[in-house]
TrEMBL record:
Pfam families xref list: ABC_tran
Molecular function, one GO term: ATP binding
Organism: Sporichthya brevicatena
Keyword DNA repair: no
Record keywords, A-Z: Amino-acid transport, ATP-binding, Nucleotide-binding, Transport
Homology family: Belongs to the ABC transporter superfamily.
Protein name: ABC transporter ATP-binding protein
Top-level taxon of origin: Bacteria
CDD domains: ABC_TM1139_LivF_branched
The ABC transporter domain, residue ranges: 2-230
Length: 231
């Protein structure tokens, strides 16, 4: 289980998150929704160690991991697919994958990535930055997938992509979850997110305004409230 306890976070002197409590049970999909500027990205950044919280605690498997850098958290099974994807554009697809692989497991890692996204297999020698936006997103997801994470934080991974690619990415998220990874999903396509999620948190101005099971919420009402919803 991943737990955020009373999390306060922000930038410089500006506090964005205020006392956020959030739980991602093992093997579950949790959708984190809210209007622009609510603090969703900030929450994922704080949870993955990219920014240091101002207060509260981050607990992974019963142990506090507060202050741990992102690569250590990922090695412990908590990985983040950030906004902007976090790939190395001037390296090849192969090298992007190898960098994320354990030593001696490179071949296996590349095979695992290609099994999730066969298109990457045709592009191993291509510079990542020259691929289409959808292919770059697949690479970002594949880099996380090869690490077999227990928890994956996903920041708007469908952003700006064609509907067919979004379908492919959601299919992949289903596979990731079926293999046992728990997902914390920030997503502009509210109804799509609620279709796959078990639990939902609504964030408003840095505070949790609702937490519960997806079956308790009216997906259309939430979708109507937020930009990009309903598709
Ligand atoms: N690096 C930063 N420095 C200062 N303020 C920031 C920084 N990043 C975000 N903020 C501010 O923090 C607040 C929350 O932003 P955040 O990106 O977490 O919201 P969000 O819910 O992810 O929004 P969106 O749906 O628009 O991506 C906003 O007011 C934003 O301007």
């Amino acid at each position: 289980m991943l737990e955020l306890r009373g999390l306060d976070a922000g930038y410089g002197g500006t506090q964005v998150l205020r006392g956020v409590d959030l739980i991602v049970p093992d093997g579950s999909i949790v959708a984190l929704l809210g209007p622009n500027g609510a603090g969703k990205t900030t929450l994922l950044r704080a949870a993955s160690g990219l920014i240091r919280p101002m207060g509260g605690d981050i607990v992974l498997g019963g142990e506090s991991v507060l202050g741990m850098p992102p690569h250590d958290l990922c090695a412990r099974g908590l990985c983040h697919v950030p906004e902007g994807r976090g790939i190395f554009p001037s390296l090849t697809v192969r090298d992007n994958l190898i960098l994320q692989s354990k030593a001696g497991k490179e071949k296996e890692s590349i095979e695992r990535a290609v099994s999730a996204f066969p298109r990457l297999g045709e592009r191993l020698a291509q510079l990542a930055g020259t691929m289409s936006g959808g292919e770059q997103q697949m690479l970002a997801l594949a880099r996380t997938y090869i690490q077999k994470p227990r928890f994956v934080l996903l920041d708007e991974v469908s952003m700006g992509l064609a509907p067919k690619i979004v379908d492919e990415i959601f299919e992949f998220l289903g596979r990731l979850a079926a293999e046992g990874s728990a997902l914390l999903l920030v997503e502009q396509y509210v109804t799509r997110a609620l279709d796959v999620a078990d639990y939902v948190y609504l964030l408003n101005r840095g505070r949790v305004s609702f937490a519960g099971e997806v079956s308790e919420v009216d997906a259309d009402a939430i979708a109507a409230e937020y930009v990009g919803g309903g598709h």
